[in-house]
Write a structure and sequence with these properties.
There is one protein chain. The protein is mostly helical. The chain has 2 domains: 61 residues; 129 residues, Arc Repressor Mutant, subunit A (Orthogonal Bundle). Pfam families: MksE.
């Protein structure tokens, strides 16, 4: 298992690994033998390797839902729900602002300046962005559009939803964690009956 050591450490630390964040690691995790090796090692820890429906991102789940696992999942679920609506609004806002026909998915590129310019030209989008930026998930204290957008994208990068390949170039690539997020939203919508589709636009997004 030594060859998988660094990969295991990242997974146990809560990393989401996709082709965008680490192509080599993603390719290794796509191999059946690697999956078997990792799951064999993780079994005593009550953990296992899982992926989303499209297998675009890998992360750890629990092997059995013990009492401790349920408590941990409940805490994670509560945190996810708190950030769910602002993230869903951001997804919808990007889709409308950039004129996309479908929701964001791993590998999509967003140019920050293009997003800013198109938002500036639309008062409705500016108001929605201002409301979104002030949400406690992003917690912007600025009234300047450019600063608000940069903070939102920085926070999404910190949470692993976006990757910025070059620090001096203002464009971002969507990671597989977005695919995971959309799967979570769909699960909550279908199984938990939470109001994650308050508008026709949100329903179309999912």
């Amino acid at each position: 298992m030594l060859q998988h050591g660094p990969l295991l450490e990242r997974l146990l630390a809560g990393d989401f690994i996709c082709r965008i964040t680490d192509e080599d690691a993603y390719r290794h995790l796509s191999l059946e033998q690697t999956q078997q090796d990792i799951n064999h090692y993780l079994r005593p820890l009550n953990r296992r390797l899982v992926s989303n429906d499209d297998q675009s991102v890998y992360f750890l789940g629990y092997y059995e839902l013990s009492k401790e696992a349920r408590e941990q999942l409940s805490q994670q679920f509560a945190q996810t729900v708190q950030s769910l609506l602002p993230l869903l609004e951001w997804l919808q806002l990007v889709q409308e602002t950039l004129g996309r026909d479908s929701a964001l998915t791993a590998g999509d590129t967003i140019k920050l300046q293009e997003f800013v310019l198109r938002t500036e030209d639309n008062q409705s989008l500016r108001q929605r962005l201002n409301t979104l930026a002030s949400d406690r998930f992003f917690n912007s204290q600025s009234e300047q559009l450019d600063s608000q957008v940069k903070l939102i994208f920085r926070r999404l990068k910190e949470h692993g939803y976006l990757l910025q390949p070059h620090a001096d170039r203002q464009y971002y690539i969507v990671t597989g964690k977005i695919d995971y997020l959309i799967d979570v939203i769909r699960f909550i919508r279908d199984e938990e009956h939470l109001p994650v589709e308050d508008t026709p636009q949100q329903e179309a997004l999912l």
